[in-house]
């Protein structure tokens, strides 16, 4: 297992991140499509909205995971190790870097719509912010989450910090609560002195007026990181409450300490195990409601991909409408 994890890390570092600045092979132009016609200034002073391209990558992830399983004969990415031994790491990197995932336009539009809704909610809250457009760096969260700490630290220092300092960023508004927010508040400060404030968009929009876009009860799937380690368990619940959306709770399913992982972080390591975990989680959530609300793009992608019509999986920004 160790050998293929190392191969995966090298593919990410030497292939995808170097080729397009992202951990998966997609056109980075997708990352800024959502901002079209919103007139968000480039840089925008010292405060930026930071997408880390996570929502925008969700449709690509949904296309990439089945491709991985198909190409590898249904096995996990461990077979990359044998591929490296056959054609060399350079050969694998060149093939991976040359691959560009292109999902359905409807999926791209959905992801862009979620990010646009977040930006509009921030505007409604009176927040002035800019966006880095094509210069926005990926956070490096996946490198950290698969244990590639040295690679993460090198990337974060040379890409993320360098870019933020170039633009003089003093306040970063994260819209990917669990992964990007966790990297910026719980991981990077252990190694670097960060000269900018980090705030989740949910904290900034929790008091604005919103209307429900769904009828009936919903159940919340809590991101492990956001609920347990970032102290935001009650924040998105209060937002749903303000909109008059009833969320069904069970201490054994949606309790702060009882909520379980969606399996998404395992997508690149073992698609089969990731899918199994998602199925278990969906089965539990469906006992409470057939409408599942997520607050994380990775949870949205993995649960949505594995729901198979049993439940409807929606991001919180798809069940709310800014008044």
Describe the structure.
The protein folds into two domains: 2-204, no CATH class; 208-322, Rossmann fold, CATH 3.40.50. It has twelve helices and eight strands. It has helices at 2-20, 54-71, 80-98, 105-124, 141-145, 149-166, 179-187, 201-205, 224-229, 233-242, 271-286, 297-307, and strands spanning 47-50, 171-174, 197-200, 210-212, 219-220, 291-294, 312-315, 320-322. A three-stranded parallel sheet has the order 1-2-3. Strands 5-6-7 form a three-stranded parallel sheet, with helices on one face. Strands 4-8 form a two-stranded antiparallel ribbon. Strand 2, helix 7 and strand 3 (197-200) form a beta-alpha-beta unit. The radius of gyration is 19 Å and the shape is globular. 42% of the residues are buried.
Order of helices and strands: HEHHHHHEHEHEEHHHEHEE
Strand content: 5-15%
Enumerate how many helices there are, as a single number: 12
Stretches where pLDDT is under 50 for at least 5 consecutive residues are 72-78
Which overall shape is indicated by the principal axes computed on the Cα atoms?
A: globular
Helix and strand content put the structural class at mainly alpha
Distance between the termini: 51 Å
Reading side by side through the largest sheet, how are the strands ordered?
Answer: 1-2-3
Strand count = 8
How many domain regions?
A: 2
Q: Could you tell me the mean pLDDT?
A: 86
| Largest beta-sheet characterization | 3 strands, parallel
Measured as a percent range, the helix fraction is 40-55%
In angstroms, what is the radius of gyration? 19 Å
């Amino acid at each position: 297992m160790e050998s293929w994890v190392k191969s995966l890390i090298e593919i990410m570092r030497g292939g995808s991140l170097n080729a397009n600045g992202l951990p998966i092979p997609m056109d980075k132009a997708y990352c800024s499509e959502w901002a079209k016609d919103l007139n968000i200034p480039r840089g925008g002073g010292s405060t930026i909205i930071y997408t880390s391209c996570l929502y925008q990558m969700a449709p690509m992830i949904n296309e990439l995971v089945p491709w991985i399983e198909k190409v590898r004969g249904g096995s996990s990415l461990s077979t990359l190790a044998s591929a490296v031994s056959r054609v060399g790491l350079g050969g694998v990197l060149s093939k991976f870097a040359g691959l560009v995932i292109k999902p359905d336009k409807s999926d791209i539009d959905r992801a862009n719509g979620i990010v646009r809704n977040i930006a509009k909610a921030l505007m409604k809250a009176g927040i002035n912010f800019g966006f880095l457009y094509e210069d926005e760096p990926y956070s490096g969260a996946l490198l950290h989450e698969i244990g590639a700490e040295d690679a993460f630290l090198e990337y974060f220092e040379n890409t993320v910090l360098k870019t933020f300092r170039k633009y003089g960023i003093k306040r970063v508004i994260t819209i990917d609560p669990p992964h990007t927010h966790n990297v910026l508040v719980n991981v990077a400060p252990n190694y670097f002195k960060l000269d900018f404030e980090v705030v989740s968009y949910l904290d900034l929009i929790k008091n604005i007026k919103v209307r429900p876009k769904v009828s009936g009860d919903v159940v919340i799937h809590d991101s492990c990181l956001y609920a347990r380690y970032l102290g935001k368990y009650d924040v998105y619940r209060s937002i749903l409450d303000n909109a008059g959306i009833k969320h069904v709770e069970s201490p054994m399913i949606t309790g702060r300490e009882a909520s379980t992982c969606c399996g998404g972080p395992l997508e690149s390591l073992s698609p089969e195990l990731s899918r199994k975990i998602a199925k278990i989680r969906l089965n539990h959530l469906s006992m409470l409601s057939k409408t599942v609300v997520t607050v994380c793009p990775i949870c949205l992608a993995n649960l949505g991909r594995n729901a198979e019509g049993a439940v409807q999986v929606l991001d919180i920004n798809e069940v709310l409408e800014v008044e």
